[in-house]
Design brief:
- This protein is an alpha+beta fold.
- It has one domain (3-56).
- It has two helices and two strands.
- The chain is elongated, with a radius of gyration of 12 Å.
- The N and C termini lie far apart (30 Å).
């Protein structure tokens, strides 16, 4: 992991944002300094993350 991504993970932790670092597929900082990330997730009725997107959309 590069220093930029490590800093974003640290910022998520500091902000108390619920996430699973080992399951994050992509993370970035937007122009307005918001951090966005996509986790692997799960498929199914209550799906989430990338698996949900691939399954439902």
């Amino acid at each position: 992991m590069n220093d930029g991504k490590a800093a974003l993970f640290a910022a998520l932790c500091q902000a108390g944002i619920n996430h699973s670092p080992e399951k994050i597929v992509q993370i970035a900082k937007l122009a307005d300094d918001k951090i966005v990330f996509l986790e692997q997730g799960k498929a199914g009725i209550r799906g989430s993350g990338l698996a949900h997107i691939l399954n439902k959309h």
